[in-house]
Amino acid sequence: MTDSGKPTLLVVDGHSLAYRAFFALPVDNFSTKDGQHTNGIYGFLSMFVNLVKAEQPTHLAVAFDTSRHSFRTDQYAEYKANRSESPAEFKGQIPLLQECLAALNVTVLTKEGIEADDILATLATRGAADGFDVLVCSGDRDTIQLVTDDVTLLYPSVQGVSQLKRYTPDAVVEKYGLPPANYPDIAALVGETSDNLPGVPKVGEKTAVKWLTQWGSLENLIANADKITGVVGGNLRDHLDDVTRNRSLNALLRDVELEVTPADLALRPIDAQAVRDIFARLEFRTLLPRVFDSFGTGDDELPAAAVVAIPTAATPAADALGAWATDAEGDVAVSVVVAGGLPTRIGLAAGDDVVEADWSPEVAAALTAWFESDAPKVIADAKPQVKALRRAGVRLRGLAFDPLLAGWLERPSFPDKSLADLVQRHLDEKLPEADPTQLVPETEGATPGQLAWFAGRVAAVQRDEIAPSVASVLTDIELPTLDALADMELAGVAVSHEKLSGFSAELLARADGVARLAFAEIGREVNLGSPKQLQEVLFDQLALPKTRKTKTGYSTDAAVLADLQESNPHPFLDLLLQHREATKLRQIIESLDAAIGNDRTTPDDGRIHTTYVQTGSQTGRLSSTDPNLQNIPIRTEESRRIRSAFEVGAGYETLLTADYSQIEMRIMAHLSGDPGLIEAFNSGEDLHRFVGARVFGVEPAEVTPAMRTKVKAMSYGLVYGLSAFGLSKQLRIEQSEARQLMTEYFARFGAVRDYLRSSVEQARVDGYTETIFGRRRPFPDLTSMNRVLRENAERAALNAPIQGSAADIMKIALFRIHDQLRTEGLASRVLLQIHDELVVEVATGEWDAVERIVHDRMGDAAELSVPLDVQVGRGADWDEAGH
DNA sequence: CGATATACGTA
DNA sequence: CGTACGTATATCGA
C-alpha cells in the first residue's frame, strides 16, 4: 500500500532481468556441485527480493517470454533476427527460476506468441484503470511508453540489475524531452538495433525529438515529410516504411487476453518448505533469510483451521486402550515417544479417533497382543520406534506403511527428513513443533496421539499418489527390511578394544617417524594434513610440475602423488603417502574404538551398534552411520588387521560372511540378455578370464594377468558409464588403446551396449529409471540443455537400475534370512550388510543350518537368466571369515 | 560454530 | 571425462 492509500501492483519482466543477471554475474561462482548454472536465477531473485522489500507491493506477477517466436516475428520476420540464440546455459535456468517463483507463490504469466512486455503492458493498463499504483520492472526500453501518473517504470541501469532507475512522466521528459507516450515515436525514427529495427539513417534522439516537437506527432511529421530539409530529410522520405513498421512493432499490446486480473495477483504467503527445497537444490544459502525478510516465512499464514482441528487425544485406562486398539478398523497410526532408547509415551490414531498413554507395564501388557498381531499399523520413521518397543519386550508386527520410507521411494533424490516435512508437503499444514531452543517453549509440540493422527493422514494421501510398482517395493521389500535392520542394529557387532588399541599405538608411532623423515627432506615442519601447506611444499618449494586443478589450487591426492613419484621422484612424496596411510588407518581405528559400547540407547556391551539409514541413497542401497561399518578397510594386508578386530561375540561360535560375486555384472547380463555374457556366467569359468578370451581372441587359459586386468576394468567401468578417456586413465594406457579395447568388447558383447543405450533413452522418455523390482529413480536432467548436467544424469541413469536391482536383491535375501533364522528358532543372527555381503553371527551348533539358509536365500532371492553365485566364509573374526 | 573443500575408506 | 555412500581434517567467514 502506498502513501496514496492505493494498492500497489508490481509486474516484472522475468526474462529480460534474468538475462541481464546472467551476463552480469560470473558463472563460476554460481553453479551447483553437479554443474547446474544458477547465476541468472540468483541475480534475478536477489534483485526481486530487494524490490519487493523496498516497494512493498500488495499485488505481484512475473511475466516470461515463451519463445523467440511471437506475433511480431509473424509481422516482420527480421524482428530480433540479429539476436544470437540465447545460450543453453541461460535457457536451462528459466524453468528453475519459475519453480522458485512458484515456491514463493508468485504468479508466473506466459502466453504463446506474446512477449513478456505485452503482458506487462496489459496488466499495467488494467491495473491503473482498476485503481492501482503500478510498478513495471523491465529491461526493455519499449516499456517507457507505459509510464503515466499511475504507472512507474523501474529500469535497470548500466551498473546492473540491482540498481533500478525510476521513470515517472517527469523523469521521461527530463531524459528524452518528450512525454512517455511519445517515446515509441522517437524509437521508431531512431530505430532499435537490439530488435533489428533500422531507423532513419543519421537520425538520433536529438533530431527525432526536434521533429516531433515541431510537428506535434509522428503522423503529422510523416504527412509533412516533404517539408524536411537537408540530407536527413531525404533519409526520412526514403525510410518512411521503416518508420511506420517500427512504430507498429514497438507499440505494446494493452489488451492481451489473460487468465487473471490485477486483483487476482494479491500477494500470497510463500510455501516455505518448497522454497527451502528448491534453494537447497540450487545451493542458495544466503538468499533464504532475505526471502523470509521480504516475503515472510509463510508460517503464520498457514491454514489455522487445520491446526485448530487437531483432535485431542483421549487417555483411556490401560485395559480400555487394549480394547480400543483391537476394535479399531483399518490402519492404526502409531507414534512412540522414545527417550534413552525406550518408549516413554505412546499415541494411536484410527481416523480422527485418537488415544494416548504414558508407557507403563500395564499399558505394555494391554497392547502387546495387538502390537504383535497382523493388524495394520502406520508409523512415521518406524525403525527407532520398533527398536524401542523391542527393548521393552514388544515385537511389533503388521507394519503396513511408513510415510518416511514412502516419501523416499517417491523422491529418493531429496527425501523429506521428518514427519513435519511430509505434513507440509502432502497436507499443506504445519505440524505443531515446540521450539527446541526454548526451555519453556511458547508453542506446544504435537502430542504423540496427534503425531500418530498426522502420520495416518499423510499415509492416506501418499497411498493415493504412489505408483503401484513403488508401493510394492515399499510393502514387499522395504518394510520387511526395516524389521531386519532393527534387529541388526540392536544386536551390534563385537569389536575387540585390545586389538584396536595396540594397532593404533603402532600406527601413531609410525606416522610420527615418517613425518620426521618427511620434514627432514624439506628442511621444515609443515602440517602434512593440510592440502594448502602441501601445495606450497610440492609446487613452490620443490617446484614439482603442477597437477590436476582443484577449486583452491592443485590436487595432492594419492593418484596425483603416485604420478609425480613416477615423473619426478622425490623421497618426500613417498613419505607423505606413507604418512597419509598410517594416519588414515589410525583415524578409522580411533573412531571405531570410540564407538564400542557408545550407543547411548544401549548399555555397554562391548559391541558397535551402527545405524542403517534406509533412506540414505538414491539407488536403493542402505547407508551406515555412527559409525559407518560399510567402509571398513580391506584392500591392504595391514588394513585387514582392523577387520580382525570384529569378532564373534560371547555365546556364539563363529562368524559367517556371505557375498554375491559380481552381482552387478550378472544383473547386466540379465537385463541386456547378452548371449555371450550369459554364457560366461553359466560356463563356470572365471568371468574376466572368459571375457578376456573373447575380447582378445585367445583360449581362456592364455589370458594373461594384464589382459584380465583390462577387461575387468572395462566390465566394471561399463556399469558406471565409463568413457574411453576414463578407461585409459585408469589403466594408464593410451586413449587409442582404450578405444580399441571398447570396440573389441562391444563387438563380442554387443547386446550390453544396446541395453545401456536403450535404457538411458527409455529413462529420457519416462523421466525415471526402474529396477527389476519396480524401484524408481527420477532423472529430470536427462533432457537438460546443460551438457555437463545431462551427461552426469546419463551416467547415473545407466547405473541406477543395475546398482538398484542389486540392492533390491540383497534386501530380499536379508529379510528372508532374518525371518527364516527366527522361524526356525535359531539363535544365529545377521549383524552387518555391506551392499553385497552379509556378516552373520552363528550360534553354537547352528553352522550347517545357517550356512544352508544364508547360501540358499541369497541364491534364490531373484530369478535371473544367470545364477546368483554366493561365496561363504567362516572364521572367528571378520578377516578370517572373509576368505 | 557452521559451511566448504579436500582426501579417502568401502561396494 | 566412473556409480553409490560417510567421515576426518583444515580452513574460512560469521
Task: Give a description of the structure.
The protein is α/β, with parallel strands linked by helices and 883 residues long. The protein has four domains: 8-172 and 253-292, Rossmann fold (3-Layer(aba) Sandwich); 304-466, Ribonuclease H-like superfamily/Ribonuclease H (Nucleotidyltransferase, domain 5); 494-607, Taq DNA Polymerase, Chain T, domain 4; 663-802, DNA polymerase, domain 1 (Orthogonal Bundle), CATH 1.10.150. 50% of the residues lie in helices and 13% in strands. It is built from 37 helices and 26 strands. The strands form eight sheets. It has a six-stranded mixed sheet, with helices on both faces. Strand 10 (342-350) and strand 11 (353-358) form a beta hairpin. Helix 2 (39-55) packs parallel to helix 5 (93-103), helix 23 packs antiparallel against helix 26 (571-595) and helix 34 (750-766) packs across helix 35 (787-823). The chain is globular and about 115 Å long. The chain binds a DNA duplex (11 and 14 nucleotides) through helix 24, helix 26, strand 19, helix 31 and helix 32. It comes from Microbacterium telephonicum. Pfam families: 5_3_exonuc, 5_3_exonuc_N, DNA_pol_A. Its EC number is 2.7.7.7.
Beta fraction = 5-15%
Amino- and carboxy-terminal Cα gap: 76 Å
Total discrete domains? 4
Count of extended strands: 26
Catalytic activity: DNA(n) + a 2'-deoxyribonucleoside 5'-triphosphate = DNA(n+1) + diphosphate
Enzyme class: transferase
GO biological process, one term: DNA-templated DNA replication
Function: In addition to polymerase activity, this DNA polymerase exhibits 5'-3' exonuclease activity.
